[in-house]
Specification:
Layout lengths: L48 H24 L6 H21 L5 H33 L4 E2 L2 E2 H21 L1 H31 L9 H27 L12 H21 L2 H4 L12 H43 L1
Antiparallel strand pairs: 1-2
Helix pairs in contact: 1-2, 1-7, 2-3, 3-4, 3-5, 3-6, 4-5, 5-6, 6-7
Length: about 325
């Protein structure tokens, strides 16, 4: 990493200080870099321009690959992994710009926000893939009684909940996110076990790469877990200059950027479109006419149920009156 070359102006010129000040405002060097303890420092280190460019290119290639694959395999839900890759691309592009314009706090803030939120999309993608695998391969289309459609939707919403929670207390948010991942892994393992049973019984067509896809999901979730552990430890030590993790950019590249890049590339190599080829590989998408007809059927079903309850109530009342009449006749 390049060293920081920063000069501090005297207090009589552009540097401001006072007896009670906790920091001083430094005169920016060539790329706007100043000491990390300066009042006008936007970074806790000197950003590595070359590394940021490298990750921008790599994430950009993954995003392009996912965009092409989504169209080729006609998988609408894959826009999620496209967004994840694009957000990471934008994050490191802004990091590269910020490395050469370190006084621009907009670059620093936007880059960090995108870096922290992009993995949520990768997580959601894993949930969506497994949900569609359950729908495509299992005759019952459910795991532990949870329907495939609700399996995907529920965990995506739980992911959103953990994100909202993390906006208030980041460590709590990512801890809850990991809890949901563990729960999801239990369901995924149950699906894996059921698929193995069907495969041994010869009920799964040969040459299906479902095992490769399910192991890809396991690796993706493991990479997300690695990143969560890193971020939890990082924020546990506070966001001050005394935190050694914040002072070394290698941690961010090695334990955040690289795992998410590997997750995106693994999903390129073993793309869901390769495995989920049949019409059942996508959740049913009803047309407006079909939705209207379905609502009408539900309305009629409710009306029938309501009438049946009414008739049952009347029959019960008639029976009661008949018993009273018979009792009076006997008297």
């Amino acid at each position: 990493m390049s060293s920081t070359t920063t000069s501090i102006a005297s207090s009589s010129s552009t540097t401001t200080s006072s007896p009670t000040a906790t920091c001083t405002t430094a005169v920016p060097a060539k790329w706007g870099n100043v000491p990390v303890d300066a009042c006008n420092s936007n970074y806790s280190l000197d950003p590595n321009f070359a590394a940021a460019i490298a990750f921008t290119v790599l994430f950009g290639m993954a995003a392009l690959g996912h965009t092409v694959q989504a169209f080729v395999y006609k998988k609408r839900f894959c826009w999620v992994i496209v967004v994840a890759s694009l957000w990471d691309t934008a994050s490191f592009a802004l990091r590269a710009l910020g490395a050469h314009d370190q006084q621009n706090d907009g670059y620093a803030i936007a880059s960090e926000v995108l870096l922290l939120t992009a993995p949520l999309w990768i997580n959601a993608f894993a949930y969506m893939v497994v949900g569609r695998m359950v729908y495509c391969f299992l005759p019952e289309r459910k795991v532990y009684g949870i329907k495939a459609v609700w399996l995907a939707k529920s965990f995506v919403w739980l992911d959103i909940f953990s994100f909202i929670l993390g906006m208030t207390i980041y460590r709590v948010g990512i801890a809850v996110q990991e809890l949901f991942i563990i729960l999801f892994l239990v369901l995924t393992q149950k699906f894996h076990s059921r698929m193995s049973q069907l495969d041994r019984a010869g009920q799964i067509p040969r040459r299906q790469r479902w095992r490769a896809l399910i192991w890809t999901i396991y690796f993706v979730l493991a990479l997300i877990t690695m990143r969560i552990i890193y971020r939890f430890i990082e924020f546990s030590q506070g966001v001050s200059s005394s935190n050694p993790i914040l002072a070394h950019e290698g941690y961010t590249f090695g334990l955040d950027a690289l795992p998410m890049l590997l997750a995106a590339v693994l999903s390129n190599v073993v793309h869901p479109g390769i495995v989920l080829k049949s019409p059942e590989g996508e959740f049913p998408r009803l047309s407006r006419k079909e939705k209207k007809a379905l609502k009408e059927e539900e309305k009629q079903a409710k009306e029938v149920t309501k009438n049946e309850k009414k008739m049952a109530k009347l029959a019960k009342l008639a029976k009661k009156r008949s018993k009273i009449g018979n009792a009076q006749t006997e008297k």
